[in-house]
Amino acid sequence: LGLAMYASSLCAVSGATFLYHDYCVIGAGPAGLQVAYFLQQASRDYVVFERSHAPGSFFALYPRHRKLISINKQYTGKSNSEFNLRHDWNSLLSHDRRLLFRHYSRDFFPSADTMVHYLEDFASLLKLRVQYNTAIIHVTLEKNEQAWNGHYFLLTDQDRKNYKCSSLLVAAGMWVPNVVNFPGSEYVEGYETVSINPEDFAGQTVLILGRGNSAFETAENILGVTNFIHMVSRSRVRLSWATHYVGDLRAINNGLLDTYQLKSLDGLLEGDLEDLAIVKDKKGKLHITLRFYLENRNISAGIDSITLPQDELDNFATRAPYDRVIRCLGWKFDFSIYNRSLRVMPGKGNIKKYPQIKPSYESRGTQGLFILGTASHSVDFRKSAGGFIHGFRYTTRAVHRLLENRHHGVPWPSTVYPITQLTNSIIKRVNEASGLYQMFGVLADIILLRENATAFEYLEEYPIGVLAELEMQTGRKAHSGLFVIIMEYGRNFSGADKDVFYYNRAVGEAQHAWQSNFLHPVIYYYKHLPTEREMKLRPPDWPLPRPDAIHHIVEDFLTDWTAPNAHILPLRRFLENCLSTDLRNFFAESCFLFAFTHQKLPPFCQQGYLRMQGLVGSQELRHHAVQAGLLPDYTHTDFSGDRPPDSHDGSQEQLMRDHAIPVRPLQHLVNAKDE
Q1: 19-175+332-402 topology per CATH
Q2: What does the similarity note say (predicted)?
Q3: Which pLDDT tens digit goes with each residue over 345-375?
């Protein structure tokens, strides 16, 4: 049947005219606009299809009560724009400083209407190529060996217009409501249509199905006017501060937990919704029973002929009738528009609402089809922020970089530094990088070592799920080993049943850094690029295979990893042990001395001093170095002259005279400006 349907769809489009683009993007929500920005910056041929008349149509309706739970922190005490994005969960990435969300709202939790306005400006100010009022209703494949991926994607809209593209980027989000069918489910109101006027619930008794933020948001809105609210769901409540997952219940919506635990009538229950049944009595009240009580009974016969749980258990928890039952079960991906030839299949278990994709965000069934935005959250579901703007703005950029390398031969952006800058480069990134911080455990900075460890190549925010494919995906080579820098929470610190406020929960000593609980940088060292097999066999809950060496930078209360003794020194020694080299910085006097006493100079002296590079010495620097024990104190040394060495006029001849060393053999080592 599937083959017949595929053949018929090909026949239907065989005579049609197609408008071609290299890239087709479905959806002009945040992810669609974000990838459009990157495609436009790269001067690629693309188009974005949006079914509504404006971008961000999801936010025009949701959340129903109009308050977002993505923080909009105006002040951080710092002017570093990259660092500030760590605490700006709404802005998309662009070069235009006007398009920072803080210019649109000062509210910590902004309005969804502001988000709609922001997305409209993002699309218009950047002149993104969005085709509005175009709903894609069918997608299929056309085999063609000349195409990038061996096939073209054929798209049809609601007006039967046809489009062809080489790569399909799906950023349509999750907008199909999750519905559970059970006897009496026709009496249930959906979150998408229920009234948001609290007065409509005055004096009523309400049952809410679900336990996510939409359920608690709905409860928060009517908490002060109802008789009581009960909430039932399959799983226990999960608090975001305990799980460290922003998609779990946020404090802004958890008023019902107070009224439940402080015994103010409201309550939470656990149970499988598919086992429930609802019976409506003559007065319009809704009674909760269990499905097996209705077996072999006619529900339309009336409530008097139906056995209810309280008939056998007189203290049954939901024995009181309800005036309204509201479904708040979230959303799922729309699989209906994709022909079976694309093999866009739902995931399994708790990610069945998402399409199956690889860690590279490419569909498992079809090459060249990428899932972006909220629908790509299966990669890091309940682990990181990939389902939210402050996460998928970075994963979208990563996908674009993968596409640039695959189709246009543009390697992953990188910067080459001398090995002496290794410690500084890591410290800089872990202290300001927003992508590492938001997509912890998912995106990583990769340091590729050059031969003999004299230099390194730095790649930012690469998806670690495809680390084994790094050379193919980035166009960069990893022949001499690599470091992987990621951010992690402690292994046993996150979970719905965890007490994250226990005494002595924080670690402060560098020697115990591996026991850090809060988010902190972790550096993995591999002598060789891990293989695909090693990635599959990695330990449970490990983001990467076992490395040749690993280093945890101890957690910091201020998330400021710049302490010389607690953060920088242990990191430098770890790097030195991995590379068997000395990464310290030296004064010119020390390099000068090493030139006479060592066969091999430290890299800093080789790449700096001997090339006449580095800081010019001064009396203050020398005094500090003496006080710190970094240089001998020559002021108390008995010299043949009348003055100590530090009092010379800076000339090479005078320096040589003070140290009683012949000048000519050392002219290739010392320059007056270096001293």
Answers
A1: FAD/NAD(P)-binding domain (3.50.50)
A2: Belongs to the FOXRED2 family.
A3: 999 988 999 999 999 999 999 999 999 999 9
